[in-house]
Each structure stands twice: as C-alpha cells, then as structure tokens.
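User: Thanks for the earlier help. One more: Cytochrome c domain-containing protein. Can you show the sequence and predicted structure together?

Assistant: Of course, both are below.
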Amino acid sequence: MKGSALAGAALALTLAATAGHAGPRGDYMLECAGCHLQDGSGMAPKVPDMRGIIGRMVQLPEGRAYLGRVPGAALSPLNDADLAAVMNWSLKAFAPQSTPADFEPYTAEEVARLRSDPIQKPAKARRELLKALAKAGIDGGG
C-alpha cells in the first residue's frame, strides 16, 4: 500500500514537472483553450474567434505585434520560447489558408519584446487593427 502511494506521488510529481513541456499544442490546451476553446473559435463577444483571422493579421506589422501584445499572450505564464511556439502552432492550426507562405515564425526574442508592452485596451486595439486590415484590402472577418 505504501509503495503504491509513493509510486502515485512520484507519477504526480513527474507529470507536474513535465506539464511545462507539453509542446505547443499541449501548452495551448493548458493556457489558451479555456477561453479560445480547443478549436480557436473563442467565446463571442468577449473572446474573439482566431480561426482564419490570425493569418490575415500577421500580414500587417501592427497585426503581428497585436498577437504578441494582447493580454492573454503578453501576460501568459509561458516563457518567451514556449509562447512563440504556441503562436506559431496556432497560425498553422487555426489559419493555415490565410497565413502568408513567406510568414517568418515568431522567435523568443520577438515575443519578449512584444509582451513587454501589453495592450491596455484590447477591444479598441482590435477594432483599429480590423480597420487597418480593411484599408489594406485584407478581409478582417469582422
């Protein structure tokens, strides 16, 4: 009995220690899916749908910056490298058709710079970004 309790405790500690190494999909599920949902569809109107739109956002420098500065990303407990991996994975998972073929993946250094200046008014910033997308002739989807 004592041995199985120790084995269970060891397993729990191992799982806890490796939780931060879940990979980008696992990190997304642990840190982002609670609001953005497993499929990236969000919970309108408070949590926007990421499907398709994030690939269009990265077509503009301000859109690329926006994704790293929104509070959910900027204030995430993930380290810079893991957050960059989640952001890159999200583009492939939720916006494969709209992400430019020449997209340069986010780096840990870029994410560190972006998240050091979190957006204070995300809804306003999103509205401004959608206007910029429209002005550039890019469908913002809402």
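User: Great, one quick takeaway?

Assistant: Residues 24-135 form a domain with the Cytochrome Bc1 Complex; Chain D, domain 2 fold (CATH 1.10.760.10).
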